[in-house]
Write a structure and sequence with these properties.
This protein is mainly alpha-helical. 76% of the residues lie in helices and 0% in strands. The radius of gyration is 33 Å and the shape is elongated.
């Protein structure tokens, strides 16, 4: 029968070999993630240029005191309705049709630009309104407004 192994000699990597292996791994990671690293550097540069990086650094260093001040401020009675409605607001944001709001906002901006470009000092008669309905853009806008009002009334 064989003798039992009683002494185990572990293979030890020298410090120099370990450093060399670690540097090689870091070089490979940098090469594999070059674009991400450059974007990260650009982000840090932008945060630094805007002064935000200094603010975040100061906040992290004094986070306990800063969070205590935030909690103390939020604990005031004037913020109680906001905190009570905050969960409902979050759920409302999830239900909003962002694409529809963006489209509506764009149309409102175009309408405001057209309104500012045209003179609003002229008076409009009933006959002018009837003539305006023949304009396809005005007719489409009024039709959309009527559908909106109908949908809101449901």
């Amino acid at each position: 029968m064989a003798k039992a192994i009683t002494k185990i000699k572990r293979y030890e990597v020298s410090r120099e070999d370990q450093v060399e292996q670690d540097v090689r791994e870091v070089k490979e990671a940098v090469a594999d993630n070059k674009d991400s690293i450059l974007k990260g550097i650009d982000l840090l540069k932008a945060l630094d240029n805007g002064g935000t990086l200094d603010s975040v650094t100061a906040f992290v260093k004094a986070k306990d005191e800063a969070l205590a001040n935030v909690v103390k401020e939020i604990d005031k009675d004037q913020y109680e309705p906001l905190l009570r409605n905050l969960p409902e607001l979050v759920f409302l944001l999830g239900e909003i049709n962002v694409t529809g709001i963006r489209d509506l906002s764009s149309r409102l901006n175009h309408g405001l630009e057209a309104m500012e470009g045209e003179g609003t000092t002229d008076k409009t008669s009933f006959l002018d309104l009837a003539k305006a309905l023949k304009d396809p853009e005005i007719n489409r806008s009024i039709t959309m407004l009527l559908h909106f009002l109908k949908g809101m009334g449901r």
